[in-house]
Amino acid sequence: MAFVLPVPPMQDLKLKLQQSTLVSPAKQTENKAFFLSNIDQMLNFDVPTVHFFKANPDFPPETVAKSLKMALERVLVHYDFLAGRFKLNLQSGCLEIDCNSAGIGFVVATSECLLDELGDFAYPNLGFRQLAIRTLDNLGPEVDQPLCVTQLTSFKCGGFSIGLSTNHVLLDGVSAQNFIENLATQAFDDKPLAIFPCNDRHLLAARSPPHVEFPHPEFFKPDLPAGLGLPVFDCEREELEYTVFSLTSDAINYLKDKARESIGSTTTKITVLSVVAALIWRCKALANYTEYNKDRASTLLNVVDLRSRLNPPLPNSYCGNAVLVAYSSATCVYIEQWPFSKLVEMVAEAPKRLTDEYAKSVIDWLEINKGLPCGEYMVSSWLRMRFGEVVYPWGKPVHSGPVVSHRKDICWIFPGVDGANALVSLPAKEMERFVACFREFFPKSIIN
């Protein structure tokens, strides 16, 4: 079945702060300016995640706190840039990281709640924001704040959570997965790193001189007043509603069958992501659709990993943002009239555009224009992320996932117990229409 599940209202987790400090690498690291690619620089926003663990009598929260702090110190030797601070290179006009070992944030807190009182972890409570804080109150202005904060919160039952708030400039999804696996290994006494990170971001540097070979409508050049530095990829902050659209295997099979009805290309691969993303795109486009704006274009941006698409391929251990967006665009009237298979085909075929030549052209375009992604909606898939499979000394997490934020322009798609979940954040009226479009798409036997 397909379920429409509003995220629970804000819940006060009754947190009490025990410790708030900075953690630096266990060994002295080189003080240097760390180069950031043009892809890195356009993704300047925080991504909070939280990982929940059941109580383990061999690892009470106090022991976990000591072990986690030690693991952070060890792993930062290999990820020294995480402990640095942003600075603007005045000569190039580009953002870089001052690797100065200033440290990442480390917070220890307790909650008066039980883990069981938090409900189903797959439907993130707004209170989960308290489990992955972004800044440390005991530090100064933004320039002094760490680029990454790790938070351990213990609950009355002995269970606990590890929250991570990390600037996207530092890590993409694959890099974050590798970092967390490495962090888990360093919590053991005798385990080596799972994957040694490749920290050379010059592998995605622009060519000299830049050579833009393709049009790039998926990006735009912001009109910034002189002296304001680099643009920030963000959206307007307003009051939002949050809903998880849960698609079981039955619902996904229904979507795949609809996609196969008149698919235009025999080479089009119909996947969980392509059908879910196509449905989300349709609902988002029609949520703002009226007789007066039927010719409005709706553009979906789908985040795609570049590592295997480049020539030569980047190693899986590449630590940085090796992602670009594949775009699909159509007017709302066509999105409403076309068969679902057409939308799936557009979503599935769009990543094929991201060849080595195209990716290099994007990077060069960004070198010239310092641009940002341009689309009505973006989907970011965590379906292949293995956060829930990471083994710590105290066991695997019972759930790992994103924390709701103010981003109304991004839909997070992540694994469900039996299928996939899509976390959507929209203003109330738009959410009401989105939900209606979602429900109307399925027969009553599929929707709850």
TrEMBL record:
Superkingdom per UniProt: Eukaryota
Entry's Gene Ontology molecular function annotations: acyltransferase activity, transferring groups other than amino-acyl groups
InterPro entries (UniProt xref): CAT-like_dom_sf (IPR023213), Plant_Fungal_Acyltransferase (IPR050317)
Family: Belongs to the plant acyltransferase family.
Name of the protein this chain belongs to: Shikimate O-hydroxycinnamoyltransferase
